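Example record for the data management plan.
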Amino acid sequence: MSKQEYNPLLLLAINTLHTAIGIFINTFMVAWFFDITGNDIVPACWFYIYSYAISAILFVALGPIVKCGNKLRLFRLSFIVNFAALLLILYLQENIIRYIWLLGVIIALEKAFFYYPLNVMTSQEVSNKKMIKFNGYTYAWSGITKILIPLLFGWLISVESFIRTTFVVLILSVISWILSLFLRHIKSSCKAFKIKYLIALARKRPLIKLSLSVDFVRGFIFETLDLLIVLYVVYMFKTNMNLGIFTSIFAICSVVSNAVFGRYCRYSNLTVLLVICCFLTIIGSSYFVISGDKFSFIIYNFIYASVTLLFPIISAINIYRVSKNKSVVSLYRSEYIALREIFLNSGRSLGFGLTIVVSLYLSPDDLKFVLLTLNLFVVLLGLLSVKLNRLLNMER
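Corresponding structural encoding:
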């Protein structure tokens, strides 16, 4: 098997395992925070603000290493850092709330070490022709993981405990590290890391500027939405087992949607798909806000899982297309990916920061209005994505 086929397959496998670890951290650990703080959303928001704000800084600091150094070593280091974060949870247990900043810093390191090299390697190793297929199958395999793993974690936490389930996640982290050792050498550029030049280039090139705007809005919307959905599942359905079942059922919707997207979608029909996604997202979120019952929440989550979550896939495809554009690909791919992570994580931090402010004045039940507002921003994201897709198609 050639390196052009071998490395993408390994990256797909590693990303799938990382998805399982992410489910534990972003779903069950957050639910655990709610449990030990009496459904207080603020500690979880601070955790995400620390992790995303610091990781944005790290993306710039690590730029020279990712561009000119051995990005595989950095990638492998991410699993060791993840292992350290899980050990910290095991050691501090419920006292972790007092050190939420420290956990956020460690997770920030893990995110930067994992995603920066991963994005650059994916951009290098996967051709433009195969990018839609690769991203479709990546999200599909991640979706399968999201079906099975929540049931496993929900059951383990229910019959054992959150802390004991952490040992299972430690094993997954070790397996990921072992798989990363089999990745074949990926070339590095010998050119200097010039993010200031790319910032100046972004001001002149609408394509780059627009893609950064898409990332900022996407970051502002989706991570905060995911947190609110977890909060509402815990608030309405009470147990970790129910959380696992709920997450798994709607992951099936995502798997089917992602597989169909990867199989049939083409660059030429992305615009029509984006318009349909915007329309259905607004209908689903409005229905939940008006009704506010479990049935409307289930309907909203069906639309969110099968339709709205196509936006991150489309955004990822466009990101890689921009990184392969003639004005970026030759010398500034690493700089572009670092800059877009700054915008993405800044949007995420802003979303969680505003949620903290709003939560001071609203009860958990009233946070559905925040959820509706974020879904209205999906329309803005759709408009920006349509414009970006047209620019990319013009430059093909």
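Summary line stored alongside the record: The chain has 15 helices and no strands.
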